[in-house]
Specification:
This is Thymidylate synthase. InterPro entries: Thymidate_synth/dCMP_Mease_sf (IPR036926). The protein is built from eight helices and eight strands, in the order βαβααααβαβββαββα. By secondary structure, it is an alpha/beta fold. Strands 1-2-7-5-4-3 form a six-stranded mixed beta sheet. A two-stranded parallel ribbon has the order 6-8. Helix 1 links the parallel strand 1 and strand 2. The longest helix is centred in the last third of the chain and has 19 residues. It starts with a strand and ends with a helix.
């Protein structure tokens, strides 16, 4: 199933409701966010990893953000140790963008080189006329996050559960003309605690990469190969969608 909306919040609510109402025919779900970034002018440089510092740039959809940020989950976010939705969003941002983040460390040093830096240098390349250099190689800007020598080995141990495996498998930067799109694949994703924050974190990554390489932010396409929940369902969905 494919869910498509303009903002992160609209896409998230539509996807969440589809899952809760059993409208997703299979175990996987693709979410297409056509305008995840508000500020197409790319004028602002932001170094903060706190979501509130990004609200004028990232298209979170204000109503959804307010409801989600106030929601109190039954367990704390591993990064921030806080229980609110805002704490969980900030945890996802740090996972992807903080130097000690679980995903960031895999991207920066999981294969003995910095994958994001390699992509940035490729996207910054220009020909003698100053034009962006697109071709077959710019269709292969794929960064691997799931580390086989760590995650796959642990997953193959003969035990019922292996905690701490990376859920984000890969990210793929797709340039089209002057626009840069970002695709992501999760092997599994909690759609209550983590999906909304993951979408926001991906949007921040896209904005930051575009700003450094002189591209316009395009779409984010996120596929979860397994949609699941971390203990919150119908009540949570009703609150976020304004039905309660």
């Amino acid at each position: 199933m494919i869910v498509e909306e303009r903002s992160i919040g609209e896409a998230y609510i539509k996807a969440l409701e589809a899952v809760v109402e059993n409208k997703v025919p299979y175990w996987y779900l693709t979410v297409h966010i056509s305008r995840p970034v508000r500020d197409a002018g790319m004028k602002r440089e932001i170094s903060s990893l706190e979501v509130r510092d990004w609200l004028d740039v990232i298209n979170v959809e204000d109503k959804v953000f307010k409801a989600f940020s106030r929601f109190r989950f039954s367990k704390p976010d591993p990064w921030t140790k806080g229980f609110t939705g805002e704490d969980w969003i900030n945890g996802r941002i740090k996972d992807l963008l903080h130097p000690d983040g679980y995903y960031n460390k895999a991207l920066r040093s999981g294969f003995s080189f910095d994958q994001l830096k390699e992509v940035e240098e490729r996207l910054r390349a220009r020909d003698r006329r100053g034009k962006k250099m697109h071709g077959g190689t710019s269709n292969a800007l794929v960064c691997q996050v799931f580390l086989p020598h760590e995650d796959l080995r642990r997953a193959c141990f003969l035990r019922p559960c292996a905690k701490g495996l990376r859920c984000l498998v890969m990210i793929d930067f797709k340039p089209e003309g002057d626009t840069l799109n970002l695709m992501a694949v999760f092997r599994s994703q909690y759609f209550d605690t983590k999906a909304y924050g993951n979408f926001i974190a991906l949007a921040i990554l896209l904005y930051s990469m575009c700003r450094r390489t002189d591209y316009r932010p395009g779409a984010i396409v996120s596929t979860a190969n397994k949609v699941t929940f971390d203990g919150h369902g119908n009540c949570f969905t009703s609150i976020l969608s304004g039905k309660e």
